[in-house]
Predict the structure.
Amino acid sequence: MVRGDSRAFPVEGVDGRAVAAALPAGHDRQMNPSAAVRAVIFDWGGTITPWHTIDHREQWTVFARGMGAIACALNDTATTVQRVEEDAWRRGRQEGVSARLDEILAAVGLDPADPATLAGLAAYHGFWEPHTLTHPVIPSVWEELREKGIRIGVLSNTIWSREHHRGIFERDGVLDLIDGDVYSSETPWVKPRPEIFLGAAASLGVEPQHCVYVGDRSYEDVHGPQSVGMRAIWIPHSDIPQEQRNGKISSTTRGRGRQAPDGVRPPWSRGAGRRTPRTRMPRRARRRVGARPAGAHRRYRARP
Ligand SMILES: [Mg+2]
């Protein structure tokens, strides 16, 4: 998907063309550290919900078993769906395009409405449930922010639907604390594409310079929001697999900002974030984001 995409943005009151048209050339917006904070937008996986290391293979084995597959058919189904899902996430990192669970299943010839597929999906979501729990501190944090007049947003890179994510928030008793939520599965884009951050701000009715974004990924969750003028808070508590890191941190602003090197920056973000002052990262933080030995992540956190 390219800048200027005309697909409707599936959030009430937000139009995809308007979001794209709002982007200045190079979509490089200046952050204003003195601008009042009117909204805080949260990433989901590893931020609202604590980081868990997930066995990607196992989720699709559970899915295939739930479908009733056995022996070679079980193994083939799990292998095929896993490969297509990984390709979808890879396209997101490299091209900035989103994906949806139903599309992934359809791509391997499974009808998402077929009873066997639905049984597989029930098993799949059962596998995921213990990894979707909202962090216990979130309700009090959000209530405190709302008491100060600050709006609460959610913006997640996910293949799951809005309905599914909102069901998780409802289960955990925090849905009514959310003022605006955007899921990449309902847009053409993924973080760190600037369009999706502008859409998240628009869903809250707040200008980007009055938004703060909170997330666990330095590239998607810090470089992305800063490219549209948001401030960003990086919570590096997650064990992000090396293959999911779109470039390494080369600079910070007091440990919070970052800027991707030109060589690894995808084409849609050229010029973004260049006004971020270059400072040297603390040694502990550099070690945290440093390269891991090959094969260090056979098990890794899935997104969502
Ligand atoms: Mg995350």
The radius of gyration is 19 Å.
